[in-house]
Design goal:
alpha+beta, Archaeosine Trna-guanine Transglycosylase, Chain: A, domain 4, about 35% strand
Length: about 150
């Protein structure tokens, strides 16, 4: 299965993926949204910054899902995996407020570990049917949404 992870451009994470500094993609939710229960090891993840074309792909190698999050559990997850996710350690002031706010008061967390990162020839996608605010698309086959 193919997925498209849409990233916040202001966080600069695509460059960290390409440099190898970021090897985990996290998604923090109030409710279960894709890719919850929809991604497996071996799936392909395409990455794009919001408003930009797809430019990177990688292979999912491990998926961890956490539910019933508390502030303590959130901190524990981030302390363990934050460096691989954002290139920073411990939940401290070195993390921008916007990112801390993104993680706070969420009920679910999914961590997707990846490798085999490749820059790809940039291409656009058609998000029709996935919702204009979708931040993760489970495409089945990327050719179905590639423009």
């Amino acid at each position: 299965m193919h997925h498209v992870a849409i990233m916040r451009k202001s966080w600069g994470l695509i460059q960290k993926i390409l440099s190898g500094e970021k090897t985990v993609e996290s998604r923090w939710y109030k409710s279960r949204y894709p890719p919850w229960n929809k991604i497996s090891s071996g799936d392909t993840i395409y990455f794009k910054d919001s408003g930009e074309p797809v430019s990177v792909k990688a292979k999912a190698i491990k998926v961890l899902q956490f539910d019933k999050l508390t502030s303590e559990k959130t901190k524990e997850i981030f302390d363990k995996y934050g460096k691989s996710d954002l290139g920073v350690g411990k939940l401290t002031n070195e993390i921008p407020r916007e990112i801390k706010d993104y993680m706070t008061n969420k009920n679910y967390c999914i961590l997707v570990f990846f490798d085999s990162v490749e820059k790809v020839e940039p291409f656009e996608i058609d998000k029709s049917g996935f919702g204009s605010m979708a931040a993760w698309i489970c495409a089945g086959d990327i050719r179905k949404i590639r423009v």
